[in-house]
What does this fold into?
Amino acid sequence: MSISTSRRDQQPVFVLHTYPFKETSLVVELFSRDHGRIAAVAKGARRPRSVMRGMLQSFQPLLGTWSGKNELRNLHSLEWGEGLLLLQGQALMCGFYMNELLLRLLPREDAHETLFDYYAQTLRQLGQIEHNPITLRRFELAMLQEMGYAVPLTHDEDGRAVEAERAYFYIPERGACVVQAKTAQQSGVQLAGKTLLDMARDDYADVQTQQQSKQLMRVLLGHYLGEKPLHTRQLLMDLQQL
It folds into this structure.
């Protein structure tokens, strides 16, 4: 894939992660609305008097300007966007969890405008409400669907409508299967048809739906993430069993 050399001015972005680069600079992983995930060098950003240093904050809507012909771009400037956010405590950890998911699963320079908007909306919700586990389930599902991973909820693997009263075994990349002896030998999770239908309706009021949707998303994300675990998920599990 060819890398565009054009300059991008004042693009809506969020900072996902930063790490040191050479003596005084940082590599910044940005999630941009129109250009996907971008890696750029913020030259001199580690210097105490750097203007950009104070702007490199996660969860804040920013406007970024960058250019370059290589995969690692040059970040020229950042400006504050609209509506500064304040995440604390559990909500802050949830935000870091979302960032790690995007870093692990979102390909470079693959634009997902809808996912960007949903990420921004989820951050606002984390700062306003206390139902963080449900908020995370919604984001996990939306993220996988927007990235093109099939997560069928209303029909089983044979195309039959899911029945609320029936038990299913959900297998990654196959979907819901009627529970049989052979399905128990495969990597998946058993859950009620009602849970799948509730998730399709975005209804997480039922306690069983909350519990089983967490198990389902853990299996699906584990499948796509591979053997390397998420650091933030373990922290969340240790703190609040999210």
Observations:
- The chain has a mean pLDDT of 89.
